[in-house]
Design a protein that fits this description.
Layout: E1 2-7, H1 19-26, E2 31-36, E3 49-50, E4 60-61, H2 63-71, E5 79-89, H3 92-98, E6 103-108, E7 113-114, H4 116-122, E8 125-128, H5 138-149, H6 158-162, E9 181-182, E10 185-186, H7 196-214
Parallel strand pairs: 1-2, 1-6, 4-7, 5-6, 5-8
Antiparallel strand pairs: 3-4, 9-10
Helix pairs in contact: 2-4
Length: 227
């Protein structure tokens, strides 16, 4: 999968060269191309924003500069996403759906926002990572890239994704590893039994109980199947 990111701060994305996304880049499972919007400014000072028409606080990113940046990576098969608190909140279903795309162009806003005309002209979908405001769209873009990349074929083992939180509508069951006893607390006996059928049943039950306790909203329209 290819990601083209339109941003004023490409250096912020260096962290994606680490861990799972870094390995995916190295193994050519994903390709992340960072496009510095400022490079497409015709102003000698590389200005990319101006005061809003009608007055008001802050600065607005100019549409022509963004459009030229977009034109440099334009692809008829690409889906253009604008990271904005006004967008639909990102969830696991949306992540899985986006992972089926071949090419995502991600637009990162900054300052007071982006001129609406270029949003209307090039953006296919607006996505938010929550009901709060950040200084720019770079961190949300990294969240999107990381979450989507995990579903790209070959990035993770299939069973790792299948049992994660939200993958089946519930939160994930608790995890344990060595040592067997920590500060007087022992690993649940069922996990030491070797009975995989009973372990699977226990994990489903735990998943349900944890979801009921921490995120009861997720239980709406969900049916738990425990053999």
């Amino acid at each position: 999968m290819k990601f083209d990111v339109l941003t004023l701060f490409p250096e912020m994305f260096n962290c994606l060269n680490e861990s799972i996304t870094g390995r995916a880049i190295k193994n050519e499972k994903i390709d992340i191309n960072l496009v510095n919007i400022r490079d497409f400014s015709n102003n000698k000072h590389k200005k990319v924003d101006d005061t809003p028409y009608g007055g008001g606080a802050g600065m607005v990113m100019m549409p022509d500069v963004i459009y030229r940046a977009y034109q440099s990576v334009k692809d008829k098969n690409a889906k253009v996403i604008y990271m904005t608190p006004q967008g639909r909140t990102l969830d696991q279903r949306k992540v899985e759906k986006l992972s089926k795309e071949e090419h995502l162009i991600i637009l990162c806003g900054h300052y007071e926002g982006i001129d609406q005309r270029v949003v209307d002209k090039i953006v296919d979908e607006e996505i938010s990572i929550g009901d709060y405001v950040l200084t720019g769209g770079e961190i949300p873009a990294m969240v999107l890239i990381d979450s989507v990349s995990r579903y790209v074929d070959g990035v993770l083992k299939a069973h790792s994704i299948k049992e994660e939180s939200f993958s089946n509508g519930f939160l994930e069951y608790p995890q344990y590893t060595r040592p067997e006893i920590f500060e007087g607390e022992k690993v649940p006996e069922i996990l030491l039994s070797g009975n995989h059928q009973e372990i699977d049943k226990w994990r489903k039950e735990q998943s349900f109980e944890i979801t009921k306790k921490k995120r009861p909203d997720l239980l709406q329209n969900q049916i738990l199947i425990v053999d």
